[in-house]
Task: structure prediction
Amino acid sequence: MPVPDQRDPDLTLRSLTGWLEGRLPGARIPMLETPTTSGFSSETLLFDVAWTGPEPDGPHEHRDPCVARVAPSRYQIFPEPRFEEQYRLMRILDERTDIPVPPIRWYEPSPEPLGAPFFVMGRVEGRVPTDMPPYHMDGWVTEVPPAERAAMWWSTLGILARIHRLDPEELGLGFLDQPKWGAPGLEQRLAYYEHYLHWAYDGPQETALKALAWLKANRPEEPPGPPRLLWGDARIGNVIFREGVPAAVLDWENAVLGAPEEDLAWFMFLDRHHSEGVGAERLDGFPPYTETVERYEAMLGRPVADLDYYEILSGFKFTVIMARIGQAMIDFGWIEPDSEFPYDNNASRLLATILEGDRT
Result:
């Protein structure tokens, strides 16, 4: 969902070029694309970096396609944007693991150059499944063969299992812990999203509150062993694909420590939302959820448990996020202040269906 705000392209080019000069003397920016709107979570700037470097046969111009992710400065979807943590995690994944993230270049903590902190990464070519419209309804995913859709699903699931097999302690990922909300895992998640729920939207939220009460009353034992790294927004819509193969995994702003079941349930819930939740048939080629669980268990090396619980947790989290998006739509004058959208939308309706016992 875009925020109605337009960045000055000329000013941005001058500021970014001046900043880059301190890191790569003599560098130029021959191409810069600034969005006419900025995202809630972060803003994306596309640009090329050009510089002349020595070569055996004489000086040669190098060109590097880049992306700058700029922290939200006008409107926040999450109560506490964890922007620097996202950068730190992506650099670790880039340098120390085989998880395919874009190559990380630089981080700038000061808001002075672009109005907010930002980091720069290499631009990865490929295609990303769309959320608007959901990829089961329209867009390039509807046009590729079913075998390519299956490849997209299974390859992303494989990356998810690889993420969950990483050792957070060995990688030094303790900074992802949020002890102010409790112990890592469900205690932390429920406390954080309860806070988020009341911060997001000052209005009726019957379905979300019902789900929260159920989650508190039915909290299961968590899997034994230390918490694992969770992607936090595990879905094919956060993957750059090339003919069914992930070229890069994106959007780590919600990464936390916890049980892999939480990521797996979110992965399937978001796909269910983008099909059943919006009244669309699930496209041929995408494997059944039961088969997904079986294959994931084989890749993880253990059975998963309590996925019904984690599915409701997924629906609750997404309903809270949609409540905040609804509040933003009110604040920007896109809907009336008394609109039902913040508490009655596709996410909340699907959550209500699941709470009523339809957990297919």
User: Anything to note?
Assistant: Residues 307-331 form the longest helix (25 residues). The mean pLDDT is 93. The longest strand covers residues 43-53. The two ends are 29 Å apart (CA to CA).
